[in-house]
Write a sequence for this structure.
């Protein structure tokens, strides 16, 4: 549709940028199209929550059935990671919320109108199409926020579960050095082994940063790529061709939400377990 | 910095997303997880209790059946014992009655025998009396008609002969 009559129409750029564009500003706070989508998800969940209030009954009906099935099924899945129902229940609020939030955001990004309805703004002398809505998880800000929440929570709960000294020593291993004089007579190799342990601890710090990066980029990359893919398919042939890819993206959205949640659960589970050497 | 700008990372939006997610967790925790999880737990306990109840009920039933069977057996045994006892008693009683009857009969026979003997004796005595009276009367008659020597001797001889016989 663009560039047909370039003499009369201005060329409109239709590429999807990596970042979410601001739609409007509230007191210099940029409200981006992805942020709007996330707000919509939160509002949906709030409405859902309030509609559920006081409607949870012993004999389940309708929505409660689905919710119970999802929660119970996921809890059973969590048990295979944590190996304890108590831990699963402890982590469930965070991990389930991550799952549902990401899932709804992923799927909401696939709705018709998201990414296609927008306005044209002029940027650097070029006309650029800016959609009003963009999948919440197709913005690195969202996925980064979620990844930081997950990893930071895993450290907070780790400190709560094993004590700050023990947790601190997983990264900056002062204990490994403190142990050397005590055990050196019994086991002289400790002089070599424990500095290595301490060094591994330092690498773990980088590992924690890598966790955040990998979590956020994986989710963002998958969802953003999906949207680009759908956009390209629609550009080839808007009727019929994107449908199989739509199904693919539905599955990708589910799988990515699940992977994100299970990885956070794994981090939580590892950090709340005492290391045994 | 270039990368952060290229990816559109904005700390304000990051904070907004933190806030978003916090609200979401809170709402879900309050209205979905807590009631659903407590409900699931409650239901699990209920089902467990139901199963336990069913098991104990089955156990009770089996025990009751066993008890009733035992009682029935005991009752039967008691009943047969009572019947046996009754039979033994009846037999004893019958024996007693027969024995008593026999004794009574024996007694009566003895009595009768005594009576008969007494009667016999009495009749014999009266017979003797009558006979002696008759003899006396005969003798008187005889003597009144008188005796001759010859006749007298003959008679005496005969009597003596008879007696000596």
């Amino acid at each position: 549709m663009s560039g047909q009559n370039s003499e009369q129409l201005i060329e409109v750029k239709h590429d999807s940028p990596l970042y979410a564009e601001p739609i409007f500003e509230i007191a210099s706070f940029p409200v981006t199209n992805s942020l709007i989508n996330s707000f919509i998800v939160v509002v949906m969940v709030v409405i859902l929550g309030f509609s559920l209030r006081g409607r949870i009954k012993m004999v389940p009906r309708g929505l409660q059935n689905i919710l119970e099935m999802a929660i119970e099924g996921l809890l059973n899945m969590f048990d295979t990671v944590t190996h304890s129902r108590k831990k699963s229940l402890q982590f469930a609020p965070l991990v389930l919320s991550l799952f549902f939030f990401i899932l709804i955001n992923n799927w909401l990004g696939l709705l018709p109108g998201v990414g296609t309805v927008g306005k044209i703004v002029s940027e650097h002398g070029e006309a650029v199409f800016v959609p009003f809505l963009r999948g919440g998880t197709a913005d690195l800000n969202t996925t980064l926020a979620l990844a930081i929440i997950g990893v930071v929570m895993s450290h907070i709960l780790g400190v709560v579960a094993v004590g700050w000294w023990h947790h601190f020593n997983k990264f900056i291993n002062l204990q490994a050095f403190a142990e050397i004089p005590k055990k050196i007579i019994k086991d002289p190799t400790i002089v070599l082994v424990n500095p290595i342990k301490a060094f591994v601890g330092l690498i773990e710090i980088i590992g924690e940063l890598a966790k955040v990066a990998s979590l956020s980029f994986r989710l963002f990359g998958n969802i953003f790529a999906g949207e680009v893919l759908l956009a390209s398919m629609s550009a080839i042939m808007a009727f019929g061709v994107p449908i199989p890819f739509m199904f693919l993206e539905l599955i990708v959205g589910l799988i990515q939400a699940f992977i994100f949640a299970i990885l956070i659960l794994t981090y939580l589970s590892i950090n709340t377990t005492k290391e045994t050497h | 910095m270039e990368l952060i700008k290229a990816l559109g990372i904005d700390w304000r939006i990051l904070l907004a997303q933190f806030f978003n997610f916090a609200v979401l967790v809170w709402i879900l925790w309050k209205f979905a997880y807590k009631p659903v999880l407590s409900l699931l737990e409650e239901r699990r306990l209920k089902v467990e209790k139901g199963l336990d109840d069913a098991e104990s009920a089955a156990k009770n039933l089996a025990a009751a059946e066993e008890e009733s069977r035992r009682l029935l057996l005991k009752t039967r045994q008691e009943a047969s014992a009572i019947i046996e006892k009754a039979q033994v008693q009846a037999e004893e009683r019958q024996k007693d009655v027969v024995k008593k009857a026999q004794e009574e009969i024996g007694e009566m026979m003895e009595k009768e025998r005594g009576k008969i003997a007494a009667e016999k004796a009495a009749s014999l005595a009266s017979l003797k009396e009558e006979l002696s009276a008759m003899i006396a009367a005969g003798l008187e008659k005889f003597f009144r008609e008188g005796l001759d020597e010859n006749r007298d001797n003959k008679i005496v001889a005969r009597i003596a002969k008879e007696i000596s016989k």
